[in-house]
């Protein structure tokens, strides 16, 4: 199945992102709970992009292992200010904005794989994968 | 969905907020403001937020629910959230959200019971009025 790219610019795009991801997860045969996990992760991480970088994109990439196991990979990319201290950002309760500080650490708990790359002044890329 | 208008119904001394669509951030903020101004305008003592059709609660919506409960309490009203789907509850816990200060119950009946304990109210009238509104959700909350 082909990847989908969703532009993240406005608050409304966050809702679009989570709905697209839920639909894709449903088509890929993920359970209702996994659909909910993926939609929630999409919402959290898309909001980070819009809030901290102003704009960016989400690439939703269906993928599979050599033995045929299905997965959905979500890549959130922006050219925003970057995260100076990733370790701190991954701690529960840490927030530079007005959030609850649950976005990054909470999202990590909802997926099987979580990777964050960030360079100050260059941008951030968060890649998450959930296996079916 | 953008700018969707969530109804706020007043039944007896309870404000009922049936959330039936996915809400974008603007709608969430707007709803919070409207609930508070309705509390002030009507002097209601309870807020019953029905999220049985909500397929996802992220940290933003979770925070709104906590904030509404905290603000309503200051205005002498109690907030109860009813009908959370199991998948939503599981995800909330994994996300690490506690919904501080928010009472959650399984269905609207339980929500009324809880609020009824807080103040005297004519229960029959309230419940009949709620069901009388009819199409509030596709699910039978009494099941």
Explain this structure.
Chain A is α+β, with helices and mostly antiparallel strands and 132 residues long. Chain A is built from four helices and five strands. In chain A, strands 1-2-3-5-4 form a five-stranded antiparallel beta sheet, covered by helices on one side. Chain A is globular, with a radius of gyration of 14 Å. The mean pLDDT of chain A is 92. With 143 residues, chain B is an alpha/beta fold. Chain B has a single domain (9-117), classed as 2-Layer Sandwich (Transcription Regulator spoIIAA). In chain B, helix 2 (59-74) links the parallel strand 3 (46-50) and strand 4 (78-82). In chain B, helix 1 packs parallel to helix 2. The interface between A and B is medium-sized, with 27 and 25 residues.
Q: How do the strands and helices of this protein lay out in sequence?
A:
The complex is a heterodimer of chains A (132) and B (143).
Chain A (H helix, E strand, L loop, with lengths): L3 E5 L2 H17 L4 H22 L2 E9 L5 E9 L7 H4 L13 H7 L3 E7 L3 E9 L1
Antiparallel strand pairs in A: 1-2, 2-3, 3-5, 4-5
Helix pairs in contact in A: 1-2, 2-4
Chain B lengths: L8 E3 L2 E5 L6 H18 L3 E5 L8 H16 L3 E5 L3 H10 L7 E3 L2 H9 L6 H10 L11
Parallel strand pairs in B: 2-3, 3-4, 4-5
Antiparallel strand pairs in B: 1-2
Helix pairs in contact in B: 1-2
């Amino acid at each position: 199945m082909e990847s989908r790219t969703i532009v993240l610019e406005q608050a409304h795009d966050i809702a679009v992102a989570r709905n697209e991801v839920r639909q894709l997860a449903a088509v890929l045969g993920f359970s209702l709970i996994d659909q909910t996990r993926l939609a929630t992760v999409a919402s959290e991480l898309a909001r980070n992009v819009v809030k901290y970088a102003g704009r960016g994109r989400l690439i939703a990439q269906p993928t599979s292992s050599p033995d045929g196991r299905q997965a959905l990979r979500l890549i959130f990319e922006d050219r925003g200010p970057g995260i100076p201290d990733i370790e701190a950002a991954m701690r529960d309760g840490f927030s530079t904005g007005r959030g609850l500080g649950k976005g990054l650490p909470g999202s990590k708990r909802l997926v099987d794989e979580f990777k964050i790359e960030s360079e100050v002044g260059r941008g951030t890329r968060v890649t998450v994968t959930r296996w079916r | 969905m953008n700018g969707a208008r969530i109804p706020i119904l007043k039944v007896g001394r309870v404000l009922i907020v049936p959330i039936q669509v996915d809400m974008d951030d603007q709608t969430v903020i707007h709803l919070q403001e409207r609930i508070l101004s309705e509390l002030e305008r009507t002097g209601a003592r309870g807020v019953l937020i029905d999220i049985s059709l909500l397929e996802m609660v992220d940290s933003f919506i979770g925070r709104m629910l906590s904030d509404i409960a905290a603000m309503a309490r200051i205005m002498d009203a109690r907030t109860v959230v009813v009908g959370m789907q199991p998948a939503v509850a599981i995800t909330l816990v994994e996300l690490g959200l506690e919904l501080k200060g928010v009472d959650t119950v399984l269905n609207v009946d339980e929500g009324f019971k809880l609020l009824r304990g807080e103040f005297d109210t004519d229960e029959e009238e309230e419940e009949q009025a709620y069901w009388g509104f009819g199409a509030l959700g596709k699910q039978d909350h009494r099941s």
